[in-house]
Amino acid sequence: xxxxxxxxxxxxxxxxxxxxxxxxxxxxxxxxxxxxxxxxxxxxxxxxxxxxxxxxxxxxxxxxxxxxxxxxxxxxxxxxxxxxxxxxxxxxxxxxxxxxxxxxxxxxxxxxxxxxxxxxxxxxxxxxxxxxxxxxxxxxxxxxxxxxxxxxxxxxxxxxxxxxxxxxxxxxxxxxxxxxxxxxxxxxxxxxxxxxxxxxxxxxxxxxxxxxxxxxxxxxxxxxxxxxxxxxxxxxxxxxxxxxxxxxxxxxxxxxxxxxxxxxxxxxxxxxxxxxxxxxxxx
Amino acid sequence: xxxxxxxxxxxxxxxxxxxxxxxxxxxxxxxxxxxxxxxxxxxxxxxxxxxxxxxxxxxxxxxxxxxxxxxxxxxxxxxxxxxxxxxxxxxxxxxxxxxxxxxxxxxxxxxxxxxxxxxxxxxxxxxxxxxxxxxxxxxxxxxxxxxxxxxxxxxxxxxxxxxxxxxxxxxxxxxxxxxxxxxxxxxxxxxxxxxxxxxxxxxxxxxxxxxxxxxxxxxxxxxxxxxxxxxxxxxxxxxxxxxxxxxxxxxxxxxxxxxxxxxxxxxxxx
Lengths: 283, 270
Description:
heterodimer; A: alpha+beta; Alpha-Beta Plaits; 2 domains; elongated; disordered C terminus; B: mainly alpha; AhpD-like; 16 helices; globular
């Protein structure tokens, strides 16, 4: 043991073990860091995919995330709901800009919760208007019914919101809603990678927009077309409005004012629950 | 698995293992099939089943996979709709000192007394009862007996009428676009005295004059159990529970879960 060579050898071995131990510790630390990074990345990706599915059909998401390239445009039967606030632009001129934006954002939040609760999704927000689609993201045999129930609940929700605005001495909101259904082309459209988005196009979109415009002419808040009416039953109280010629259509359009619904069909409580769920931002 | 108390980290490890495991094309196709069936967005078809068989899996193996996924859909809905909290304490015990100490003993005891396997029924026996055509495709699997028993038990219970339960199955079938399941549900509704027109009308409007006020609420609700956002469907179910009572909501949740499982199996037949 007193041989210096043996002592040196032992010391060298100890040093080697110490170095190897240190390297192992560093590697272990790095491996754990990488595992954590991987876990966080996976969580983020999963969350992103879930959120993405609120705006784009799940089969499109599957195709894109599965590395199977661009989603080929398809024809889909969908129901379109256009809602536009009446006189909000004039209101903006009178209100503090921040207040106007707050009022508008809260309006959109409430309408989004109602639309989501009735199996629709908001596809576009243009100024104070919105376009909601039913049956575009996933197969929905009850899309017309869902759209009309959503519109009725939007009417009720707007009344509730107006009560709150009135209590704060703020101006009340009014809207017009037009609903129409038909076959549209769905796909990823846009002017370039940054501006591309999943959306739908086709004549039914234009008709729905025109029908929304007719709510001002007929001085009502909610109109549907014959195509939507034919999918509803007697539970819905409808009033036929005079046919009116609209831009881009050779024949006058017959519309129906939706007065309301008889019996159970759209429990307001479930929408209230959905509003609460949205407020919690839990999905 | 969360409800059973498995930790987030454990579940994450399983997902990572599936992602990074060195799997061949056949095994990847297997995992992809299971995922596709569970999500059903878009819904899988008979062609997906046949593609797996063509890749070398025995038909009975693919059927067992499909049955396990269908049962997964069942348990998911039971857990989510009841909104029961995860059994974290249970998992802590299993991973703690007592669990480690008792684990080997419990494994030995369980190995000595394995749970009894349910009898394997033939196709003719399995097809005798609600949704028999679908359950019969599981012939040869012990699990088929569990499926048969569950369906028979659901339709034998008197808490909700058979007609509303059959209509709930029909609504789930239509939501997923499964013609075979809808035909099976229609057979049950006809046996309950519904005419074809009444069934068509009920499926078009999600209501029927034949249903009581309480039962009518279940028809629009059950479609929300197919594709859902967890918080929203839990809120809707909680609201429904206050309206129809504990016994009815428990049976409704069971029926909705079973309908989702059964229709997912049937989708592979068309």
